[in-house]
Request: fold
Amino acid sequence: MATTADFKNGLCIVHNGELWTIVEFQHVKPGKGNTFVRTKLKHIKSGRVLENRFDAGVKIELARVERRPYQFLYKEGDTTYNFMHVETFEQLAIEESMINNPGLLKEGQTVEIMYHADTDTPLTCELPPFVDLQVTYTEPGVKGDTATNTLKRATVETGAEVFVPLFIESGEIIKVDTRTNKYAERVK
Reply:
């Protein structure tokens, strides 16, 4: 058992009999009344985000989870993705709904699959925060069109669409944030 003082981002807890991760939290000490912790919790299975308030010092049940490194092998059908454990070479097939951003997943990429330690079942698949992808198609930029913060559509090697600045051309490699699906920078 833990208390609200042990909260940190990414911590997996059992709340109302289900598994949730803490997205963000804030300790609040109002002028009047008791101290409390305001949190945003993300449901492991559905991805639903819930705002919740815990009184300070309340006991919270922690969920035992393990993060294991896997390598993406191939996509089978429309919704099944196959992975291989990096150390044991054990293969695993998971559904698309368990992956945080499947459109940015390319073959050979390393991901972390979170397992529930008590039942040894996979819960989620998380891509690294940033991935490098090649732009396969984008409209050419027009010379002199340098308006700030103007974006255009670009298709990357995985088939996903990302909005990029006007100076990005086809064939360039860009860094994409997997949490927001947004362009981060050009890779040199």
The CA atoms of residues 64 and 119 lie 10 Å apart. The mean pLDDT is 91. The longest strand covers residues 65-76.
